Amino acid sequence: MGKPIGGKIMTAKEAVESLVFDGATVGMGGQSIGRCSMALAHEIVRQGKKDLTLVGCNLALSTDIMVGAGLVKRTECGTGNLERFGTAFRWREAAEQGRLEVDDYSHLAMASRFLAGSLGLPFMPTKSMLGSDLLNKKSFDGVKPFEMLDNPWNPGEPVVLLPACTPDVSIVHVQKADEMGNVIIEGFTTHEPEMIKASKSVIVSCEEIVSSDEVRRNPDRTTVPYIFVDAVVEQPWGAYPTSTYRYYEHDADHLSRYQAVARSGGEAYEEYLQESIYGCETFADHLEKVTSTERLDELRRSMHRLL
Amino acid sequence: MGKPIGGKIMTAKEAVESLVFDGATVGMGGQSIGRCSMALAHEIVRQGKKDLTLVGCNLALSTDIMVGAGLVKRTECGTGNLERFGTAFRWREAAEQGRLEVDDYSHLAMASRFLAGSLGLPFMPTKSMLGSDLLNKKSFDGVKPFEMLDNPWNPGEPVVLLPACTPDVSIVHVQKADEMGNVIIEGFTTHEPEMIKASKSVIVSCEEIVSSDEVRRNPDRTTVPYIFVDAVVEQPWGAYPTSTYRYYEHDADHLSRYQAVARSGGEAYEEYLQESIYGCETFADHLEKVTSTERLDELRRSMHRLL
Amino acid sequence: MTEYALDELMVVEASRHIEDGNIVMVGTGLPMVASLFALKSHAPNMCYVVETGPVAPEVIPTPTSVSDPRVMYRAVRFGSLLDALGGVLQRGLADVAFLGGAQIDQFANVNSTVIGDYDRPKVRFPGSGGANDLASHAKKILIITRHEKRRFPERCDFITSPGYIDGPQGRKNAGLPQPYPDISVITDLTVMSIDKSKGRLRVDKLMPGVSLDQVRENTLFEPLVAPEVVTVDPPTRAELRILRDEVDPDGTYLKGRE
Amino acid sequence: MTEYALDELMVVEASRHIEDGNIVMVGTGLPMVASLFALKSHAPNMCYVVETGPVAPEVIPTPTSVSDPRVMYRAVRFGSLLDALGGVLQRGLADVAFLGGAQIDQFANVNSTVIGDYDRPKVRFPGSGGANDLASHAKKILIITRHEKRRFPERCDFITSPGYIDGPQGRKNAGLPQPYPDISVITDLTVMSIDKSKGRLRVDKLMPGVSLDQVRENTLFEPLVAPEVVTVDPPTRAELRILRDEVDPDGTYLKGRE
């Protein structure tokens, strides 16, 4: 059975309480400095969900904060960086100090693992990763990270098989959703369509809730239908300080500020978490604390100039 | 390299002359009585391209005519029927008389084979067809129609591997395309996105040519980008007598008329081919011969009432 | 008593196997009528998924094809066959699916491919379409068919869509995904359902006025019989009104009204 | 002679490896600048494909991220990472792709994962991202990098993105798809390209005013040397105008103008 047709609109607090649990594998939306699921990540940090395995393609700011807050046991991903803002420093330090299991794949490999999950398949073939040390890694938990197969239609040709990745719950920030749970992603969709459809449950935060009538008048626009979605959280600016296409640009100042404390770590970082996350009851509180209406307006105008 | 950015607008005659060849594997667009690629199929019949292998999911009217014209060596498909209008009779008779190799898969199996092709993979797993006689078939040409694999992540669990299907050329009728070759399919897309992307070359006929500016203003709407497409044929009513969503309903009268001659076969059928296809220089001639402006208007209005 | 046609009875009985909130994969014909009836009567939150792609359309009566604009009307998403048969069905989300076929055997296997030899068939049928996929992955399979003797052989000439294949272990041995489905065959004489412990069809219900002997006489295999065979409830006046006014007002499929 | 910065020289030289009509998979940074320059100068029909999905955008200068609205501007299609890296790249349609990394060895393998042991790294880098995919499937690989000695070891600590692995048979033995790619490394000292018969990097060109010895001194492996090493043509005045006015007008990436 798919997800029910209604009753999905809730707060971030309610959604995370009911769908994220200690030890869960969490699918992470967004890529680098675009559409990271910040509001939902903050809520997970506030609720202190532990021993998480984070999966995605480019694990960026949201991951870094969850690692920095000490909630993460493992990441399975393609990259951990914020492009020109540098590495995901908390993630990097945790990896270097052996406090974090990092299971490396290529981006296509991760997308292929989600594709398998989204189609109900146990694995997906790929021709990536051959000849690289990405095929020289051990398993963290006894589950083979890949398998080699001789192509039955061309003996002698090796093909890599990758196990399906089926997150317990995915967190994704999108432009629009309706109360049924239909999801509209505008612009790039990166690995999200496959990841969402591969997940056992899905929390979506959105810039705007639109009417189901509007969805039904433009079915071409729907990225993922409601049958995959459990919770819809209305959260304007929910990707801040990363960008949301057609809504606002990333906030380079705040990103640089975060990267500075993340790089130094220690007390400065603890203070950041305390002030900007633990000390805020909601994401709206966070926005009020770390930025201003003027700055947000600027980011919105800056995006609109680029459409 | 993908397909070039321009020079793709041509007549059906030019497109078929340059891209369809004797012995080719031809990907067939449409499903049952919706969006069959009739104008392009007629042109292939007129040009008498031989020894074709037709591949698709539901092979319906266009296939039946190409089989009826004696051009087809094999079909690889999920079904051959026109739903309430009955079986594809010429296809059926050819199969029963052993004049046609029919390689049966399920619809998901065919879509999976196209998916593999579209991703550059040699095969795709599926959990369909297990326990059925679809896995008891021989190979027609020494190429294994499937392979069984023991799931490396769950020993004892069999998984079916299906070989990629990569048509030499696909023929598809769509709503809109631009001169670059960007394709917009409205409504159901059936197996076409994967089939198109898996094909070595693609001929698209369309109801309307739209400007590339319009495409660039609504990139969400593009089903397949131009890099996969070789030829764009402007052909209003190009799916007649099957339907094109948002443009016109199927013509039940003509379909019934076709089914009557297809069922009887023999001279009646030869006459139909002679009059409605060989005797027409273009698809516009065909329309003029077999229907009327009034009837076409009726089909258009009938569709518009259902939107 | 309200008068009704046999097709109407079959359709209403089939619809009773659909629960509210179910995802139902459906083509056209009587299955479409049955599921549309469920949607309009007791399952308003049912979700149609059409093989060609559309999800949750507000179906306009009466579609005659999976490419019909009536099954695309106000869908929440248009999509592809891969989305529907891969992303919903094989993904394990389909609750109910309808099948049809030329032969249904005692293990509820269905043949829609050939009579006779596959390579040189006596009769060639259209083939699987999505039927094999539905039979492989849906949690509940419904088959609506006229009860003709030749349709119910001991063993299908060709298994297009697997039921329990050859008995209770058939699906397990074949490696088909779990959970193994409930299967019901609704005919104008009876409702037979799979007995999972035996992997065989069992007469659970009889249509009003039909005897068990009539079923046996019209079936080439010997069906199991439930300890208590009940009679199918005829459609109520209200059900018939919905069926005739809202589901198939033009009598596209339900022609034989009495 | 027109004055130019080393970055400008590297970018223009890299762009010369892009032909009109090529499909180019590109992220941000100097690779983006080089490909955007090609588009605005000699390759007007070049097709950008961005890893996150967009196809053929009319890029607004100067994008700083693969999620930047500037790389989505007037795309012909938005799409997914699977479309880009699976449906275009692995499908075999990408002509050119750019890579970067912490180490590039004599076989043109690239490391962007770790220095030291994988399980307890001395330095942890961001990882593959799409780089491994690009190196596995594109027909031509371009690497733009500063020529620092530690960047050019005999052997990468970790092969994130395969070059020729361990020699001419490396890709064949690994089962990587054919055709095997051309690979060029464009640095501020030299242009090294893969010699396919030896599977190793060969100095083909030198930047103006640079000697072969300078390259050797700044490279930890011993590169092959082409029979005739030529000097890279400096950018023309017209090229520099396009670069500075149309490609990176704000100097986002090309800061060091002379």
Could you please describe the fold and organization of this structure?
The complex is a heterotetramer, with two copies of chain A (307 residues) and two copies of chain C (258 residues). With 307 residues, chain A is α/β, with parallel strands linked by helices. Chain A has one domain (12-130, 164-306): Glutaconate Coenzyme A-transferase. Chain A is built from eleven helices and eleven strands. The longest helix of chain A is centred in the last third of the chain and has 13 residues, at 252-264. Chain C is an alpha/beta fold. Chain C has a single domain (6-247), classed as Glutaconate Coenzyme A-transferase (3-Layer(aba) Sandwich). Chain C contains seven helices and twelve strands. In chain C, the strands form three sheets. An eight-stranded mixed beta sheet of chain C has the order 2-1-3-8-9-10-11-12, sandwiched between helices. In chain C, strands 4-5 form a two-stranded antiparallel sheet. In chain C, strands 6-7 form a two-stranded antiparallel ribbon. In chain C, strand 1, helix 2 (30-40) and strand 2 form a beta-alpha-beta unit. The longest helix of chain C has 11 residues, at 30-40. The model of chain C has no long low-confidence stretch (mean pLDDT 95). Chains A and D meet through helix 4, helix 5 and helix 6 of A and helix 3, strand 7, helix 4 and helix 5 of D.
